Each structure stands twice: as C-alpha cells, then as structure tokens.
Automatic annotation (TrEMBL):
Keywords: Pyridoxal phosphate, Transferase. Transmembrane segments: none annotated. Pfam families: Cys_Met_Meta_PP (PF01053). This is O-acetylhomoserine aminocarboxypropyltransferase/cysteine synthase. It comes from the Bacteria. One of its GO terms (biological process) is cysteine biosynthetic process from serine.
C-alpha cells in the first residue's frame, strides 16, 4: 500500500509520482508534502508570526516564572495555615542538590503545598479560590489548582497485592 501511495501520480501533482520526483528521499518528501499539510503540522504564516512573537520573550518569561515561584514558595513556608511546601528550591527537598546544580538561576515553577486542617479545610480553600482554574492541564500557561480526590485505602493495597 505504501509503495502504491508513493509511486502513483496525484491530482495535485499531475504526471509526477513521489518516487520519480524525490528518489531516495521519497518517504520524507511524502510526509512533508502530504501528511504535514493534511494534519496541520506545517504552520500558517500567521501562526508562525505568533510563534515568533512568543519565542523572543520566552527566556524572560521563564525567569519571571522562577522568581515569582520562589517568592510564593517562601511565603507559603512561613504561612501558619500551610503544613508542608514541596519545591526543589527548598533545602529540605530530596532533590535540592540536583536542582541547585542543574538550575543555578532557578527553573521550576510548579510546586505543591498541604493545608493544615484536613479535607474540610482543603475544600474550603478550593471553594474560595478566585484567580485559579480548578483543572488539570499542565500544558497550559494559566495558573491552576488541583486537589487530589480522597481515596479509601484498600486492604489489598496495604498487603501489596492491589493496584
């Protein structure tokens, strides 16, 4: 089937097959000319422009992410209603040495924290959030908050036989 696709002529390239036109680079040419075009992986002019607009200030944005995260983490560590903060910039974090070695200027902008008071306080906190989306979408540029659902501990899991 692949040989047929590559050796037949196509209506938008009359009289020419990919094998005749590209020789050893037939498959790569087919991917670029047909598959990328059909799936949208080739950027339009406007999308390329938007991408370039976002790439130029990317390093500055990432620096600000790291700076702001450090400030928020430092604030939460000293906040009386917070029980624990998890971020590699904190000396107590198990990967702190690796973080300082590989990210001397900072780098991680994702952190977690636990609120004192249990599930009821957690729920009250989540219900009162105003600026955060309550969803899980790590590939987004927006701030979000996720509360893990409480799962009962199953006896099989405790014994090591459950999944």
């Amino acid at each position: 089937m692949v040989n047929t696709l590559l050796s037949q002529t196509r209506s938008n390239y009359p009289g020419v097959s990919f094998v005749d036109a590209a020789g050893p680079a037939t498959f790569v040419t087919y991917i670029c000319a047909i598959l990328l075009r059909d799936t949208g992986a080739t950027l339009s002019t406007f999308n390329a422009f938007l991408l370039l607009q976002g790439v130029e200030p990317l390093s500055l944005r990432l620096e600000r992410h790291a700076e702001n995260t450090k400030k928020v983490v430092k604030y939460l560590v000293n906040y009386p209603q917070v029980e624990k903060v998890n971020h590699p910039s904190l000396p107590a974090h198990p990967n702190h040495a690796l973080y300082t070695k590989y990210f001397p200027n900072g780098g991680a902008s994702i952190f977690t924290f636990e609120i004192k008071g249990g599930q009821e306080e957690d729920r009250r906190f989540m219900d009162n959030l105003k600026l955060f989306s309550l969803l899980a979408n790590v590939a987004n540029v927006k701030d979000f908050a996720i509360h893990p659902p409480p799962f009962p501990t199953l006896p099989g899991r405790i014994a090591g036989i459950g999944h």
